[in-house]
Amino acid sequence: MTRNKFTQLFGALSLSAFGILAANAGEVANAAEMANAGELAIAGELQASSDYHVKNGVLLAPNGEEVALFGVNYSLPFAFGYRSVAELGLDHREAIAMDVAHLARLGVTAYRVHLWDKLLTDRDGNLLNNEHLALFDFLLQQLRQHHIKVIITPIAWWGSGYPAPDPAEPGFAVPYSKNQMNEQPKAIAAQHRYLQQLMAHKNLDGVSYAKDPNIVAFELFNEPKHAKAEPVTDYVNQLIATMRAAGVTKPLFYNISEQGNWPEFADALCASNIDGIAYQWYPTGLLKNSSIHGNVLGSVASYHNPFADIAKCQTKAKMIYEFDAADVAQTVMYPAMARSFRSAGFQWATQFAYDPAALAASNAEYNTHYLNLLYTPGKAISLLIAGEVFRQTPRQAKLPAYPASNQFAHGSLQVLLNQAEDLALLDSGDKFYHSNSTTTAPKQPKRVAHIAGVGSSSLVQYQGSGAYFLDQISPDLWQLEVYPDVLTLQDPFQNSSLKRQVATLYAPSRTMTIDLASLGQQFYWRKVADGKNAAESSAQQQKPAQAQQGQIQLTPGRYLLAKTAQLLDSQQLLQSQQGKQLAANFQLPALKPTPMQLQHQPLRQWTLAEPLPVCAQLGSNNNAEVTLYWRMLGEKNFQSKPM
To answer: What is the SS3 assignment for 241?
Structure first.
C-alpha cells in the first residue's frame, strides 16, 4: 500500500532506528500446526494437485506454464473503504460483488492487497474473527468465482485511518514503529503468532489460506523499513520458517524496493530463502493534489531495476505489487507500463488501487489514484488493454526506444498510444479495444469478435461517454453491454472528502450505430435482464426490434443482437453457463435522479482571425437544448447560436 509514501510526503512520520534483536527461537520452533490433509479432500476446482512454484527465477503455474497475471489492489473490506460504505448506508457484500464483476469484465486476472493487521489482531498477535476478516473471505470467494488469482500480504503495520486520522485499533503493531517491527522480539513474536493463525484460518469454502489453490503466493510484509542490511537475512528466514511450519508450500515474496537503491539490503534479502522479490512503480510521484497535464509517456518508457545485476537476486521471481501513474487522468499510461514491466521480466503486476463503485463519485479513498469502470471508463478500457499487453508480450521482450515505443507489436498484438488524442488502442485480430474515439480501423474487421471502447470507431459510432462491450457469442449473435454516461465535475485528484462530488452518472437514451459484417445493417436486437435478480428477467425482456442502417436507440443495459429475429429467442443462451457468466458480470448501481449539468470553461477573449473552439460536457437523462452566447469586444449585447 502507498500510504507510507503519503505520510512521508507530509512529513508526518519519524521512523527511529534500533539494533535488530533476534526473535526467540522457540517462536519459530512452535509455529503453526500443519494444515489438515483433509482440507484438500473437497470437490471440484478447489482440489489442488500442486502449488505455484519458482524455478530458476521464473514463477510457474501448477501445470508448469509461465505465469503472467495482471490486475489491481482493492481494499473495501478494510479501513476508509469499509467505514465509508457503512456511512453511506450501503451493503458491503453487494458493493464487493459488483466491483469484482466489473474487474472480471475488464479482464483482470490478478488481485493483491495488504491486510490491515492492526484491525485483524489483538496486542499479542492473535487473529480476530471480526467483520473485516469475514468480508475479506467473501471477497476471496468472489475472486475465485471470477477466476482472479490472489497474492496476499499479511503484514502492513499501517493504521486504518487514512485519509482520516487513525482510530483506536487492537492490533499487535500499534505500539511499534515500522523499524521496530523487525527489531523488537515481542513484535517479531507477535508477527509469527499472527502468521500461524492466519494461515490456519479457513475461507468460506472450508480451505485454509495455506492451502487455498486460488492464492498464488504470499508477500510477507508490505513496504518494510530496515535500519541495517546485515540482520535482514535472518529476519526474513524466520518469517519464511514460520510460514512453512504453518503448512505453506506456495512461493513467498518480500519487498525489495521500499528501501530505495540500497544494494547491501538487496544482497542480504536475496541471500535468504525467499522465492521472489516485490517491486513498485510510481513514476509521476504521489499526492500532487491536482491533475498532471502534458505528455508523461516518456516517464514510463522503460522500467529500471537497480538490482538486476545482483547475482543472488537473479534466481528470484519478480512481481510488481503496486503501480500507477498517480494524478494522471490520461488513458495512455497503463499499456505503456505493462509493456515496460514485461520487458523488465515481471510476471505479476497489480495497479494501486481500484476505486469501489460505491465511493468513486467522490474519489475519496485514495485521491491520488482514480480508476473505476463506471467513473473513469477510458482508464478502465486502458487497464483492459494493459492486461492483454502484459499477457501477450514475452517476458524480457526487447522494446524500441521512446517515442517509437508508443507503437509496438508482438505476434498478432498491435498497440498504439497517442497522447495527443488521449487514445490507447489494441488490435489483435479478434480483439479491438480503444480508450477514446479513433479513426484507426481494425486491420481485419471480419475477424473481430470482441470490441471494448469509449467513443466511436469504424465499427461502432456512439456519442455516450460510458464504456461499452460487444462480444460475439456465435457467428450471427452478439452481446452488447452499455454502461452509463459519466460527467466529470471537477479535478478528481484534489483533497479527499466523501462530501465532494468528482463525477456523476447519467442514463440517457443514446443512438448507437453498429457496422459488423456478421450482423449486417438490418439486424434484430433486444434488451435482456441485468443479472442482479432473476425475477426481473421477464419484466426486463424487450420485444425484438430491427435496426435501421445499423442504428439503434438504447439506454445503459445488456442487449442481444442477431442477424435474424429467431436467434433472439435467447432462453437457451441465458440458461447456459456462458449466458449466466455474461449476466453475472454485468452489474449497475441504482442511479439516483440527477439534475442536468453543463461543464464549460469559457474563453475570456479570442481573435476574429481564428475559428472559435467551444468545448463543453453536458450531463442529462433527457433531451436538452444547449445555446452558445458570445459578444464582441466593446459591444453590450450578446449574440447566440443553438448548438
So the answer is: helix
Confidence of residue 577 (pLDDT cuts 50, 70, 90): low
- Residues β-bridged to residue 60: 53, 66
Confidence band, pLDDT 50/70/90 cuts, at residue 49: very low
Instruction: Report pTM.
Output: 0.90
Cβ neighbors of 468 (< 8 A, separation 6 or more) are 451, 452, 453, 454, 460, 462, 480, 481, 482, 483, 512
Burial of 158-193, coded b for 16+ CB within 10 Å and e otherwise, reads bbbebbeeeeebebbbeebbbbbbbbbebbbbbbbb
Residue 557 CB-half CA count within 13 A: 20
DSSP assignment of 376-424: -HHHHHHHHHHHHHHHHSPTT---PPTTGGGEEEETTEEEEEETTTTEE
Q: Are strands 149-153 and 215-219 parallel, antiparallel or unpaired?
A: parallel
pLDDT over threshold 60, residue 95: yes
**Mean pLDDT value of segment 130-146:** 98
Are the beta carbons of 275 and 252 closer than 8 angstroms?
yes
Cα–Cα distances in Å, from 550 out to 280, 476, 525, 638?
Answer: 46, 14, 11, 41
When pLDDT is cut at 50, 70 and 90, the band that residue 43 belongs to is very low
DSSP-assigned states of every residue in 15-83: -------PPPHHHHHT-PPPPPGGGG---GGG--SS--EEETTEEE-TTSPBP-EEEEE--TTSHHHHH
Catalogue the long-range contacts made by 130-136 (C-beta closer than 8 Å, 24 or more residues apart): 132/77, 132/78, 132/82, 133/201, 135/76, 135/77, 135/82, 135/92, 135/93, 135/96, 136/77, 136/78
- Residue-wise pLDDT tens digits, 532-564: 544 444 445 678 999 999 999 999 999 999 999
Say what the pLDDT of residue 213 is.
97
**In this structure, which amino acid lies at residue 23?**
A
Say which residues have a Cβ less than 8 Å from residue 135's Cβ, sequence separation at least 6. Answer: 76, 77, 82, 92, 93, 96
Which of 72, 75, 144 lies closest to 111 in space, CA to CA?
A: 72
Whole-number percent of the chain with pLDDT over 90: 77
Q: Are 373 and 360 in contact (CB under 8 A)?
A: no
Strand bridging mode 450-453 / 468-474 = antiparallel
Give me the amino acid identity at 308.
Answer: A
Q: Which residues contact 595 (CB under 8 A, 6 or more apart)?
A: none
Grouping H, G, I as helix, E, B as strand and the rest as coil, residue 335 is helix
Task: Give 486's strand partners.
Answer: 505
How many other CB atoms are found less than 10 A from the CB of residue 641? 10
β-bridge partners, 600: 616
pLDDT tens string 413-426: 999 999 999 999 99
Cite the beta strand spans of 475-604 per DSSP E.
477-482, 485-488, 503-506, 510-514, 524-528, 545-546, 551-554, 557-562, 597-600
488 residue type, one letter: T
